[in-house]
């Protein structure tokens, strides 16, 4: 991984009640060298987590100032490291009230939205983002990792800090100081030396979907679940289902309302694609096929026959018919605007040109197994 050492570098920690994750992660980064150090730290936590973070990491209001101590011990420029109480973001509940803990389904959803939106925002800014999953609830770590998978760029990192026992759960251990110190083991008549502590950073590989999603990258204003659903709609294989009995169409499970003409056209071209028929030119043969489908779906008295009869006369007279291009354009527009799918996903179900010489042909770019036609007309 290459990185621009002059670019802004943010360390984002997602944690619950464990302020040690900040100092332990920063310590591990310091062992990698100055290029790995962030110039800004942010934390997402609860109100109780914020209280503990402020009192242990910062020196204000009688706090222990462990972050200042770490910087002094290992030659880190504290003045160049932006972190204060305003850098600690508290998850709000469904009513936007700060959460003291994350216990309910609604709390989890609120935490997901907060983590997701902060990671989305940070990856829209110049510089590098390093997300640490250590210290948080498992669900918070999952939300952070998945959000980074959605938005992460090539130079962004995901990690988890590893600390050997019994230091990993010791309330007074924040990092190994240069001069070893002894710590009392809670609830036991025994002491340990920080000389035995091991703190290292585990790099977590993750799938980067940003380039794959392209313009369909979930945008501002979406909740975590909505962003996941939007990405999923782009990434999953297409599935077109047409119910002839109910006259309904679903695209990847999303229902779409179509006019009788558009339903006829989609059924016609879907049936052709399902049978692996080649793309078709908009000529007299297409009129014949469409007329057959109109008889089958609508009956011989259907008004669609009038349009098809006019199209046939245009083709006989001029060699082409505006009816076909007009209907194709309107159907494609209906699919784009009414399906509720991202643009890239909706495009799978639109009518595409397949060749241009010597004659343009048209059809759906779907495989037979991606099409289901059910029921009877």
UniProtKB/TrEMBL annotation:
Annotated transmembrane regions: none
InterPro entries per record: CRISPR-assoc_prot_NE0113 (IPR013413), SSO2081-like_dom (IPR019092)
Domain annotation CRISPR system ring nuclease SSO2081-like: ranges: 18-236
Pfam families for the chain: Cas_NE0113
NCBIfam families found in the cross-reference section: cas_NE0113 (TIGR02584)
Protein's name in the database: CRISPR-associated protein, Csx6 family
């Amino acid at each position: 991984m290459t990185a621009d050492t002059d670019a802004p570098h943010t360390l984002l920690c997602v944690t619950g009640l464990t302020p040690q994750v900040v100092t332990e992660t920063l310590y591990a980064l310091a062992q990698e060298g100055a290029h790995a150090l962030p110039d800004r730290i942010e934390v997402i936590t609860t109100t109780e987590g914020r209280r503990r973070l402020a009192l242990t990491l910062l020196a204000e209001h009688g706090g222990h100032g462990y972050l200042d101590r770490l910087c002094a011990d290992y030659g880190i420029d504290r003045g160049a490291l932006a972190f204060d109480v305003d850098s600690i973001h508290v998850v709000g509940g469904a009513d936007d009230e700060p959460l003291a803990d994350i216990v309910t389904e609604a709390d989890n959803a609120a935490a997901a939205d907060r983590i997701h939106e902060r990671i989305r925002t940070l990856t829209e800014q110049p510089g590098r983002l390093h997300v640490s999953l250590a210290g948080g609830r498992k669900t918070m770590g999952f939300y952070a990792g998945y959000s980074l998978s959605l938005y992460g760029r090539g130079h962004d990192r995901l990690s988890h800090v590893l600390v050997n026992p019994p230091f990993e759960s010791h309330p007074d251990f924040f990092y190994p100081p240069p001069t070893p110190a002894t710590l009392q083991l809670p609830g036991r008549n025994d002491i340990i030396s920080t000389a035995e502590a091991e703190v290292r950073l585990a790099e977590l590989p993750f799938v980067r979907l940003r380039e794959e999603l392209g313009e369909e990258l979930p945008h501002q204003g979406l909740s975590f679940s909505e962003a996941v659903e939007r990405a999923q709609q782009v990434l999953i294989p297409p599935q077109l289902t047409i119910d002839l009995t109910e006259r309904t169409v679903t695209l990847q499970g999303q229902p779409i309302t179509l006019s009788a003409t558009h339903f006829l056209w989609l059924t016609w071209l879907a049936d052709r694609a399902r049978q692996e028929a080649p793309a078709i030119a908009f000529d007299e043969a297409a009129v014949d096929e469409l007329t057959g489908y109109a008889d089958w779906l609508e009956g011989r008295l259907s008004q669609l026959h009038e349009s098809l009869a006019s199209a046939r006369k245009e083709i006989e007279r001029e060699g082409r018919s505006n009816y076909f291009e007009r209907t194709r354009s309107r159907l494609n527009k209906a699919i784009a605007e009414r399906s509720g799918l991202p643009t890239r996903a909706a495009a799978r179900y639109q009518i595409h040109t397949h060749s241009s010489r010597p004659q343009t042909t048209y059809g759906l770019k779907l495989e037979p197994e991606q099409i289901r036609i059910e029921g009877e007309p």
